[in-house]
Amino acid sequence: MCTRPRAENAPRRALTALFRLTRAETECDADAATRAARRNHAAARRAELGQDYVTRFAARVRELYPHCPDRRETAIAEHACRKYSGRIGRSGSAESLDPEAIDLAVIAHIRHTETPYDDLLLRGHDRHDARARVRDLIDEVLRTWAERRLSGARRI
Asked: Which is nearest to 61 in space by CA: 90, 87, 98, 93?
């Protein structure tokens, strides 16, 4: 059996590789629309599941804090449950709608929206000192929003 020298086969190998690459690109292009549709469907499903969770979280805030201002429970839930944020709304206890986790989210919201906490930080106060200074204000708002409960809310 006679074989060609390696150098003579080089152009054939290059053409074969080019043919295979072209065929792979064509196949990839052919199913690009299908892959895009699957990605879009998966993203929509994830968003739907995320929105369902935010809705349940907001309902739990409203249940535990019935006198919370209108639509504020949605703002609390959307902020606390933001994906990949590391916030309390993404913890296991929050996903089970544990009252303590809900309390933490509400307390954080009140701290930033109903007190001068952020201003204290901007003026150079230590975080722990600023929290101590606004604790009574937070407790007052919590009592107003909850009325019927608060005995177990954690202070942070």
From this structure: 98
Tokens of 26: 């064509």
> Around Cβ 92, how many Cβ atoms within 10 Å?
8
Q: Which two tokens stand for residue 33?
A: 């629309």
pTM of the predicted model over 0.90:
no
With a cut of 60, say whether residue 31 has pLDDT above it.
yes
Instruction: Look at 21 and 90; give whichever has higher pLDDT.
Output: 21
Which residues fall within 8 angstroms of residue 9, CB to CB, at 6 or more apart?
none
Residue 68 binned pLDDT confidence (cut-offs 50, 70, 90): very high
19 pLDDT band, cuts 50/70/90, is confident
Residue 15's Cβ-side half-sphere holds a number of Cα atoms within 13 Å equal to: 5
In 3D space, the residue among 68, 146, 144, 63 whose CA is nearest the CA of residue 109 turns out to be 68
The first and second tokens of residue 105, run together, are 């989210």
Query: Nearest to residue 151, comparing CAs of 100, 97, 86, 116?
Result: 100
- Estimate the crossing angle of helix 72-80 against helix 99-113, to 10 degrees: 110
- Domain parsing of the chain, residue ranges: 32-146
